[in-house]
Amino acid sequence: MSWSVTYILSQVLTVVEYGLLGLSYLAKRRVAVVILDIVSMLTGIVVFILLGADLGMAMSVVIFLANFYYLWDEKKQEGRKKKVYYKRDYVVLVVVLLAILVLTILTYDGPLSLLSVAATTLYEISIWQKSTMVYKFIGIPVSLCWMSYNGFVGSIFGVLCETVMLTTSIVGYVIEVKKRKKIYHRTNK
C-alpha cells in the first residue's frame, strides 16, 4: 500500500461512504435506510475501484442495484401497517443471491475476499426482511465481515470506519429494542 493520490482519495471517499452508512443505521424509516444506502454504495463502488478490490466492488454493485428494488417496494407499500411479502420479493432475493454467486466466481481473489461475499449476503437478507430492527441486528456481523475485508484490501479508514459502523449498528439496534419494549408496555397496560 502506497500513499498515492489514488489511495488517499479512496480513504477520503471511504469516510464519506461510512458516514452515509452510519446514518442508515440510525434512520427510523426503511425508505430512509435504503436511500442512504444507495448513495453509500455508489461511493463504495468508487472506493473499491480505486483500491483495485474487484470482489468488494462487485458486491457493492449488487447492493446498489438491489436497493433500487427495495426503494420501489417501500414506496409501493407506503402506508401499510404490516409489510407484505409478494412472490416478486422472493424472486428478487433469489436473483440477487445468484448474482452474488456469479460475481464471486468471476472476481474471486482468495479466501479472505469471501468476507465481502458473506457481508453482502447477510446484508441482502437483512434489508429484504423489511424490518429496520432485523437490518440493524444483522448489521453487527455485516460490520465484522466488512471490517476484516477492508483490512484484507488495505483500507485503513475502511477498518476504522467499520469499527464505528459496528458501534452504530449496535446502538441503533439497542434503540430499536428499547422503543419496541416501550410500545409493548404502553399497549399491554
Task: Record keyword descriptors for this entry.
189 residues, globular, 83% helix, mainly alpha
| Helix/strand order, N-terminal first | HHHHHHH
Number of helical elements: 7
Strand portion, in percent?
A: under 5%
How does the overall form come out from the CA principal axes?
globular
Low-confidence stretches: none
Number of domains: 1
Task: Estimate the helix proportion, in percent.
Answer: over 70%
Determine Rg (CA atoms, Å): 17 Å
SS content category: mainly alpha
In whole angstroms, the N-to-C terminal distance is 59 Å
Number of strands: 0
Major sheet characteristics? none
Average pLDDT number: 88
Describe this structure in words.
The protein has 189 residues and is mainly α. The chain has one domain (5-187). The protein has helices spanning 5-26, 30-51, 54-76, 87-107, 114-128, 132-152, 156-187. Helix 2 packs antiparallel against helix 3, helix 3 (54-76) runs antiparallel to helix 4 (87-107) and helix 6 (132-152) runs antiparallel to helix 7 (156-187). The protein starts with a helix and ends with a helix. The mean pLDDT is 88.
Give a quick precis of the structure.
The chain has 189 residues and is mainly α. It has seven helices and no strands.
